[in-house]
């Protein structure tokens, strides 16, 4: 009997096949001859994949049809046992996996190493009721060497049972809170409000920052800057004292010190080492790609995933900036291979001696959970799928190369000068050794550096010039997607409970893999918008956070909830029972529902636009981000016209024509070959909003 290996995605499965079978030839089955790549067939092993999630938790209507209609009296919805449901379009792959499993001796879980990968695999086995023995292939790299090493060290799948229980508990808890919270807020306040354990505290971070900015009061203040001179050396000094809000005070100081002699009262010189920046985890990569290239967090994740699937980089969905001792030889190998690339000039200046197991700026095994930092692999690319892939790869390689250089070394001069009883401070940074900075020479954001700076502290200085600097206080910076994912990662710092904060230390709000998707969800639900790189909270988003905090359920908008969850999920991973965790979730949801039912109804805050009366029920038709929907949807009206049909985005005029005339005029469409054709939309069903596309007849 063959052994079945199930990977998470086709790309990962191809890499496993290359390492184990030394081939990646697809063998479509007779049952599915038109579906490319159902599996890879070897003599002793058959390899297939999950395409990510194949199975998810069932929707409420799968438990009772009445839940199709959203009503307060239906809440809470808390199934005693959660059902699993195939994701639409994935049934054929599930059937194929079941067929292979029947004739397999045992199954290898080759999904991504971590809580989510465990859930993807176990959901499939549970839904298909497969009872075969399981072994776990655990690797964070898709290189041939890494896969073969992991294959030789596979453990019994039962050793990961607690990891799956934690993953399952997290999924069920998110389902219970998100579903009940969204329905109770929506039904109570007669407007679509989505809430969730990750989504809502993320929105709160943005709302709090926006509140600070909106209520910021700008104030003027003044500084005095002077130019000192000693034989052969000029340097600037800034007046030391409380912030000056009175310009006349600054004018008095300028007049007092201009042209006067000063005394050096303190002169400190010290050497500082600046170590290379941390290797990338996903959050840091998203932050820097956003700052340098304007990539959204979601775009960076998708590009990084493509680079990983083509084996150009290691696993990107990591929260670690470190490697362990087993990665050091691999890093040396990649360094050598980069000598034959466009990075050759940089590599020639570096040295492998700086990358070793005792370098705590790189090698910290205790800091790694499931995956090490993002690294380039030995599969050096000859070409890229896009310019954006090349840009992101360049970021990763350069960060990798910085660690093959010594620290940058500076001599810092800190000088205090007294002039007529007024004190001025100077800080001068002198570069002694560039070290790793040579990697970023062309894009250095370093402040001004000096060479050969020298003063005699026993000699006086002359105040050659003094001037007033007009300053203004500035509000906090508005979040970008890059700074938001960083804030989500660090949200655990706000958690007061020490144990919960410790559990969140490496997690924050969400995970590296889910934060980008959460930002996209906040956009889709119209809680936030973007202007350039910056994120803005809509009136609806601000209203939701204010509402939650006034209601007595403020924990829903706080990272404390995630902190408590992570602590308990960590306990489950270590062997604690699931029951206590789920009972606490149920208690929280009951309190959430009770508090919300007793609220005053919120005056509607919406970013949707009223268009026309619904042709099905007479309600009001509104435009949102994805569709033109009836305001009475929660009462059972199913009328909806999607915003994009057949690749064409409908305008408000198009929708009004559909409702009033039953069809639009002929519109121009683009086809796959960059040509054009004409067609019109026709409203086929005034109950549901179903729309057809009718092509203009060709002239004979």
Automatic annotation (TrEMBL):
SMART domains found in the cross-reference section: TOP1Ac, TOP1Bc, TOPRIM
Keywords: DNA-binding, Isomerase, Magnesium, Metal-binding, Topoisomerase
Keyword Transmembrane helix: no
Positions of the Topo IA-type catalytic domain: 160-594
Keyword Isomerase: yes
Family, similarity comment: Belongs to the type IA topoisomerase family.
This protein's name: DNA topoisomerase
């Amino acid at each position: 009997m063959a052994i079945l290996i199930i990977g998470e995605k086709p790309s990962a499965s191809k890499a496993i096949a290359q390492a184990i079978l030394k081939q990646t030839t697809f063998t479509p089955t007779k049952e599915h001859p038109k579906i490319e790549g159902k599996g890879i067939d070897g003599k002793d092993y058959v390899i297939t994949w999950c395409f990510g999630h194949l199975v998810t938790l069932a929707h409420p209507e799968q438990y009772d049809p009445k839940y199709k209609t959203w009503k307060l009296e239906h809440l809470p919805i808390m199934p005693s046992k959660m059902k699993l449901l195939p994701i639409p379009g994935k049934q054929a792959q599930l059937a194929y996996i079941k067929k292979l499993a029947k004739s397999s001796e045992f199954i290898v879980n080759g999904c991504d190493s971590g809580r989510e990968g465990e859930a993807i695999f176990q959901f499939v086995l549970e839904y298909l009721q497969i009872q075969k023995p399981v072994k776990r292939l655990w690797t964070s790299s898709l290189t041939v060497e890494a896969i073969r090493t992991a294959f030789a060290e596979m453990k019994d799948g039962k050793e990961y049972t607690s990891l799956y229980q934690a993953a399952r508990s997290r999924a069920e808890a998110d389902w219970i809170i998100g579903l009940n919270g969204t329905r109770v807020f929506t039904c109570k306040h007669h407007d679509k409000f989505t809430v969730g354990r990750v989504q809502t505290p993320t929105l709160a971070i943005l709302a709090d920052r926006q509140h600070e900015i909106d209520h910021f009061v700008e104030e003027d203040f003044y500084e005095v800057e002077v130019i000192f001179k000693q034989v052969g050396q000029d340097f600037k000094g800034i007046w030391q004292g409380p912030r000056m809000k009175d310009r006349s005070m600054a004018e008095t100081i300028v007049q007092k010190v201009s042209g006067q002699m000063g005394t050096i009262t303190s002169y400190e010189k010290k050497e500082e080492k600046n170590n290379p920046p941390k290797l990338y985890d996903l959050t840091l990569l998203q932050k820097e790609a956003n700052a340098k290239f304007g990539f959204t967090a979601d775009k960076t994740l998708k590009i990084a995933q493509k680079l990983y699937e083509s084996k150009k980089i290691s696993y990107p969905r990591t929260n670690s900036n470190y490697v362990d001792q087993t990665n050091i030889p691999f890093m040396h190998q990649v360094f050598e291979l980069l000598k034959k690339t466009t990075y050759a000039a940089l590599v020639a200046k570096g040295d492998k001696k700086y990358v070793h197991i005792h370098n705590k700026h790189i090698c910290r095994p205790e800091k790694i959970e499931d995956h090490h930092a993002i690294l380039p692999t030995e599969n050096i690319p000859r070409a890229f799928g896009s310019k954006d892939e090349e840009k992101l790869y360049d970021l990763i390689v350069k960060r990798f190369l910085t660690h093959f250089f010594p620290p940058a070394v500076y001599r810092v001069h800190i000088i205090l000068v007294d002039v007529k009883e007024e004190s001025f401070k100077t800080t001068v940074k002198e570069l002694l050794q560039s070290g790793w900075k040579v990697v970023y020479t062309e894009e250095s954001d370093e402040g001004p550096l000096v060479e050969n700076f020298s003063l005699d502290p026993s000699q006086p200085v002359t105040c050659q010039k003094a001037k007033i600097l007009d300053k203004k206080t500035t509000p906090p910076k508005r979040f970008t997607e890059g700074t938001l994912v960083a804030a989500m990662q660090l949200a655990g710092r706000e958690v007061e409970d020490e144990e919960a904060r410790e559990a969140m230390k490496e997690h924050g709000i969400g995970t590296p893999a889910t934060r980008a998707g959460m930002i996209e969800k906040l956009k889709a639900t119209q809680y936030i918008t973007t202007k350039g790189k910056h994120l803005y909270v809509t009136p609806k988003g601000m209203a939701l956070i204010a509402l939650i905090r006034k209601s007595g359920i403020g924990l829903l908008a706080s990272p404390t909830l995630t902190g408590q969850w992570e602590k308990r999920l960590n306990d489950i991973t270590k062997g604690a029972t699931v029951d206590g965790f789920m009972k606490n979730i149920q208690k929280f949801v009951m309190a959430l529902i009770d508090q919300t039912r007793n609220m005053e109804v919120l005056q509607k805050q919406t970013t949707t636009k009223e268009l026309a009366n619904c042709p099905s029920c007479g309600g009001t038709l509104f435009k949102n981000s994805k569709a033109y929907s009836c305001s009475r949807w929660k009462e059972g009206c199913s009328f909806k016209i999607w915003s994009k049909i057949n690749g064409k985005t409908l305008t408000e005029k198009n929708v009004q024509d559909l409702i009033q005339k039953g069809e639009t005029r002929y519109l121009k469409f683009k086809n796959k070959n960059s040509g054009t054709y004409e067609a019109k939309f026709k409203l086929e069903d005034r109950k549901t909003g179903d729309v057809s596309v009718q092509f203009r007849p060709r002239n004979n």
